[in-house]
Design goal:
Layout: H1 3-28, H2 36-44, H3 48-53, E1 57-62, H4 67-80, E2 85-87, H5 95-105, E3 116-120, H6 126-130, E4 137-140, H7 153-166, E5 172-176, H8 180-188, E6 193-198, E7 229-233, E8 239-242, E9 255-263, E10 268-274, E11 277-283, H9 288-303, H10 308-317, E12 326-330, E13 333-337, H11 343-355, E14 362-366, E15 397-401, H12 405-414, E16 422-424, H13 428-438, E17 444-449, H14 451-465
Parallel strand pairs: 1-3, 1-4, 2-3, 4-5, 5-6, 6-9, 13-17, 14-15, 14-17, 15-16
Antiparallel strand pairs: 7-8, 9-10, 10-11, 12-13
Helix pairs in contact: 1-2, 2-5, 4-9, 4-10, 7-8, 9-10
Bound molecules: zinc ion.
Zinc ion binds at residues 221, 223-224, 226, 243, 245-246, 248.
Length: 472
């Protein structure tokens, strides 16, 4: 055997071995261990990701909101079709996290039985990962402004995703037709595109107020800066947009939600059109935004040529994982944890509260400003807490906690919430106990933490309610 080749093989095996040991050590040390092993592996064996993924069909999911849920629904679809796959955990969506996921999944020789790699990738890291591996299918959920400190980056990120995808004409794109930013990728590129979206005349509870649309992203045409006109809105800047000046408009969707039959706090029953067939489906997650996630996953399965009945089965039985909406039973009541990280996601959770039938609501906000949460908390002023006035008949109590509890309390006060209804409780255990005490039997206490607050809170709940670690 050629010495150079032998050395290369040996180096790969040693790197995988070291990577696997680091994954175990990080986990043992309760570090979560999602990016460090990958970082070391890339240093020891540059380009290792290309090597480990050769022969696999690569599916990537990116975008601002919904990429984790969309990825997990696609995972469920793959399971339903009995397809072996490799995937990265939510949160580990930067390049090193992806490398870690591959090292964990392959054997010591770098081999795997999987035929597909399903990768959630941060939109800002997409072009970076394409230096190493290029997807066969790319799903882009949407583009929203993440936080105030990233305002200028929205168009920059879109441009970079577009520029990168333009280098690879073979990437099959799955795009949100209702997002003028996302859909522009399909307009500008020659790649094959499958669009998904929610059709005009679909009735939903958030359509009436337009959610103060003018304060949102992407108000002006990407091509000529004229103000878009809308035939209808779904949420944020999503909907039937068209530019009166240059004619850029929402493309027609290949996969679309044609009707919402019923919206419940746990699921939504819809009709969707897939290859000119109208199919009844249950999206086993609440809220309008999850219909988009289900449509994106359905579009992906269509591109892969998977049978639609398995897809319908998967989206009808999907349960959300860490951080999105986690339900923890607590003595006949429920704790519902929902991660909040940007204004649009936060707004959606508030809309979800309005859709609920609970006669009485207990809601807690835990706001931290550690590096992983974003240091600048002024984005809270972009969240429409004024909406909470719509649930005043449910006599809600609001608890605030976290490093920036006081700022959150001030924000609620400025939203017009009665200050007698706002309580600051810094201690998490006391917060959970008090909130549950006030919650009626079989009802839910909603807790909305930022990222690091979620980790701290789960640590407490893990002991209290015997929960699993989130990577299990
Ligand atoms: Zn225009």
């Amino acid at each position: 055997m050629n010495m150079k080749l032998l050395w290369h093989e040996l180096r790969l095996i040693i790197t995988i071995l070291i990577g696997k040991i680091l994954i175990v050590l990080c986990r043992f040390a309760k570090l979560g261990g999602t990016s460090f092993p990958g970082k070391v592996a890339e240093k020891l064996c540059p380009g290792i990701l290309r090597e480990l993924s050769s022969g696999l069909k690569l599916i990537m999911v990116t975008g601002t909101n919904g990429k984790t849920t969309t990825t997990r629904i696609i995972e469920k679809i793959l399971q339903e079709n009995k397809i072996q796959y490799i995937t990265n955990k939510s949160g580990a969506n930067l390049v090193n996290g992806v490398i870690t996921a591959f090292i964990e999944a392959v054997d010591f020789l770098g081999k795997t039985d999987a035929s597909i790699a399903l990768i959630e990738i941060d939109e800002a890291a997409f072009s970076k990962i394409c230096n190493l591996i290029v997807p066969h299918v790319l799903i882009v959920t949407n583009f929203f402004r993440d936080q105030l400190d990233r305002y200028g980056e929205l168009y920059g990120t879109l441009k970079l995703v577009k520029k990168t995808a333009a280098l690879f004409e073979n990437i099959k794109l799955v795009l949100n037709a209702d997002d003028s930013l996302c859909a522009s990728i399909g307009k500008d590129l020659k790649n094959e595109v499958t669009y998904y979206g929610i059709d005009k005349d679909v009735k939903h509870s958030t359509s009436s107020n337009n959610e103060a649309y003018d304060s949102k992203d992407a108000v002006f045409c990407l091509y000529c800066q004229s103000k878009y006109e809308y035939d209808y809105h779904t949420y944020g800047h999503l909907g039937g947009f068209r530019c009166p000046n240059c004619g850029y408009a929402r493309p027609s969707a290949d996969i679309s939600c044609t009707e919402i039959d019923e919206m419940k706090d746990t699921h939504t029953d819809i009709k969707m059109r897939v290859s000119n067939q109208v199919i009844k489906a249950r999206v086993n997650l609440p809220g309008l935004y999850n219909i988009y996630n289900a449509l994106a996953a359905t579009a992906c399965s269509e591109v892969l040529g998977l049978p639609i009945q398995n897809t319908v089965k998967a989206i009808g039985s999907f349960e959300s994982g860490f951080g999105r909406m986690e339900t923890i039973p607590a003595d006949g009541k429920f704790l519902k944890l929902i991660l909040v990280k940007n204004p649009t996601g936060f707004d959606q959770v508030l809309s979800y509260f309005i859709e609920q039938n609970d006669s009485n609501m207990q809601i807690a906000f835990i706001i931290n400003d550690n590096a992983a949460d974003g240091r600048d908390i002024s984005w809270l002023w972009d969240v429409e807490f004024e909406k909470l006035l719509n649930i005043s008949h449910k006599e809600p109590e609001f608890y605030v906690s976290g490093l920036r509890a006081e700022d959150m309390a001030v924000r609620l006060k400025y939203a017009g919430i009665d200050t007698n209804k706002i309580t600051i409780i810094k201690d998490y255990e006391e917060l959970v106990n008090k909130g549950l005490l006030r919650t009626q039997q079989s009802k839910s206490f909603y807790i909305l933490p930022t990222y690091t607050a979620m980790l701290e809170l789960r640590k407490l709940l893990k002991v209290k309610y015997n929960l699993h670690d989130f990577w299990e």
